[in-house]
Sequence to fold (174 residues):
Amino acid sequence: MATKNYNIRFRNGKADEDRAWEHLHSEEVRHSFRSQNGFVIAAINDFYDRHLCILKDPYLESREKEDAFADRIVRQVEEKFLDNLPKIIGQLMERRRAAGRDGINAGSDRVTASGETADVIRDIRASINAATVAEKNSGTERAYREAEQRRHDLERERTIESRSIRRKNRGMER
Fold:
């Protein structure tokens, strides 16, 4: 198997080149790749594949950023919801008691798990279902926007193609 050789020059004092040099000689590269050559090959291939994807789909980066942003929001809301879940359940139970549907046994301070707990669970499930529907709707809206953008891009390509065909035909007539 023939070996191809290509030298890379890193100039001292240039921030990007110094940073690349540090990455190439980092502990992470030593542990994650068989060699520095393997790291450079993987980096070039990954960068070029990404470059081609962006050329084919110019809105890829913005969609990825939107998705990451939405995922962060959903994750934070879930964390806050789970952190506050005991408090929410307590508030729901207090509301039920105040409404006269407390399920408290006569002569006891214990709450039975019959109707009240089922109502709380039903309310929580309804909240989760509503959040799921809202998330699906946001995905549907995003898909609609993407489809509209693709339709617009196709129309623009057709217009450019028809113009070039007309120009070509005009050139043949002369």
Remarks:
- Residues 15-56 form one domain.
- The mean pLDDT is 77.
